[in-house]
Amino acid sequence: MLLPFLTFSVGLALAESSDSNVVCEAPFRAIGPRCLLIDTSIIGPWDEVRQFCHGLKGELVNMHDANTLHDIFLFIKENPILDSTSYWIGAYDILEEGDWVWSYNNTRVRMNTPLWGVQSGRQEPTGGTYENCAALNTDYFYYVFADNCEASNAAICAATGNSVAAKPADEEEKISPPNRECPSPFTMIGNVCLLVDAVKENPWSDQQLICNALGGHMAKIQDANDLGDLYTYLISNEVIIDLWLGGSDSRLEDTWLWEDDTEVPRGTPFWGAEGSGAQEPAGGMYENCLALFRNDYFFFHDDRCDRMKGVICQYDI
């Protein structure tokens, strides 16, 4: 049964709007471009929490747009009272083991990076027939983990139907790829024109010069969906080395910037975890350059800039 361990009104009040461009009907509030309710006052099994969302004319949140996870992560970290419990989301494989779908329309869930978390070197889901519902795991930086559907977690509901005055991100028209050609030796990976060099390993600064000589720059991965498309490409092409990206905090410790001085996104679902369990970046003043780590499913890690790695270059079109 549902267990209200905080007052119901407190749970609703915590979901304050952080995006004035999105208009939502109460009790939902704008979190990124979505109308969501993050509620810690209700806790219970997956199906009962889902019914709670239905009662509000909503549904457990889907993440067709992987950036939704980043928006939720940032919001939780900005509101520490929310940062102590795991949350059910609308993904499950109850209908067919291993076939994870979103509850609101049974479309397939993106697997692997960037949504699914890593525990003891294995990427979720790992629970088999005993864990058929998905939650954002508070112990693993709110990455998606499989859980037993009878476990007790809190709710993240998304507005549906007439409860939202702006379309959720997954219902908006898809952005068309650029019309300009992605020149050789670059190739389109998702919506980005990239070159993956997994043959020549060099320090970060040397790889920067190589990308510049090709008319591009080191890759800037700002969108979680692009990271997912890149992961799929790397796995399908059997890439087995770390790869430099164009991020660094060399100029000011812990201020991570791309080469164009825009900020590198922090937290989930971009950055992985280091050996002690802390979320990256965790190398302090000794590790000032950004790479995708093959041993951590190509999530972001900081590392020493003089390490030898491959590179991903980007050509802007």
Please give the structural blueprint:
Layout: H1 8-13, E1 29-31, E2 34-44, H2 46-55, E3 58-60, H3 67-78, E4 87-92, E5 101-102, E6 118-119, E7 122-123, E8 133-136, E9 144-147, E10 153-159, E11 187-189, E12 192-202, H4 204-213, E13 217-218, H5 224-236, E14 243-248, E15 289-293, E16 299-303, E17 309-314
As for the CATH topology of the largest domain, it is: Mannose-Binding Protein A, Chain A
Mean pLDDT: 90
> How would you spell out the order of helices and strands?
HEEHEHEEEEEEEEEHEHEEEE
The proportion of residues forming helix, as a percent range, comes to 10-25%
The biggest beta sheet, please? 8 strands, mixed
Gross CATH architecture of the largest domain: Roll
Count of beta strands: 17
Beta-strand percentage range: 25-35%
Short account of what is shown:
By secondary structure, the protein is α+β, with helices and mostly antiparallel strands. 16% of the residues lie in helices and 26% in strands. The chain has five helices and 17 strands.
